[in-house]
Amino acid sequence: MNNKNIVQYFYEHQFLPALDQKMTAIEEELQHHQEQWINQFLETFKRICLRIREMQESDKKGPISLIHFCLLRRSMMDHSCYFIEAYSERWYENSAPLFEEYDAAWLYHSLPAFIQEMTESYEGFGESAKSTEFEAMMLKAVGCYHLFAVALLRAAMPEAILLEEYKSIKRELALRISIGEYTDLSEDVLVDYQGLQDVKEIRRRLEESKASSIAYGCYRNLMLPRVRAESNDLRYADFSGSHLQGSRFQRCDLMGTRWNGCLAPESDFRYSSLPEADFRHADLRGAVFDYVSGHEPRDHRRTGVMGVRFDHADLEGASFIGATLGRTSFEGANLQHALFSRRIKDSYSFSEEQIHSIRWVD
């Protein structure tokens, strides 16, 4: 085989299978240790907030508009830390930038061994591990590892913004917390909007067919009863604490959406896609989740690793007929008279009390 064919063969038959195996192993680790690793992250978040407050008290920094966890792919191969930057409204023009580190060794500890394994395998084909093609593969691997950091930070945000250290810092009306490449592609894990929002305009945009600019939106603590947001892209939108009773979210893309503590009894989510949706502590009495899907196709871009969460939600009388939720947690949820298909009885870790509370249908 010529060089081009060797590189392609290695990529398809050596690198991708090994990477998929590594991603599966990390996913399993995260399921077992996510609470521990979230708590470790929260300690880092407390530290960054204390640093920000110190700088604000000494007039070295104004209200914060961005906290960014910065990925440097090449550095991550032997240094498992994200650099943390906090900026006021003028961002990079800020005269007093703040830099901290978040040690993500929990995630990247296996990366050096993976790179060494790939190096030996690649050189076994007579190719140089110093080639641009091989380096591109290793940078791709770093990007795949990074997805788990994104998932963990996103899962930690509902707790992070309740910390007294966070509440104590001065913030702009909209504060973004993001993670990703330095001055390049990044992903918001939280948009914390404190100002008054035009509820009528938000309702109009949510109800508009194929509306734009509503994914990743902050719709927290709003009065939006009986909103009709059907067949729309609402990925990663945050409805935490909002009043949504009697609303419709049928056939929507609800991946990564947050509904923590929202009031949404009698709401309709039928046929929607909701991998990684977070309904913890929500009032969902009588809500309809028939034929929803919590699965996300496995690839190296979207993992759906955190699953769907209904922990401590009130799901009395809710319906899950035909739902295929995948990895889902109902810990502490009220499932009195909730409807589930009998065939999925063993698919989730229901408590004995929940099993006896559910109305099982064939």
TrEMBL record:
InterPro entries registered for this protein in UniProt: 5peptide_repeat, Pentapeptide-BTB/POZ_domain
Pfam families tied to this protein: Pentapeptide
Gene3D superfamilies per UniProt: E3 ubiquitin-protein ligase SopA (2.160.20.80)
Protein name per its UniProtKB record: Pentapeptide repeat-containing protein
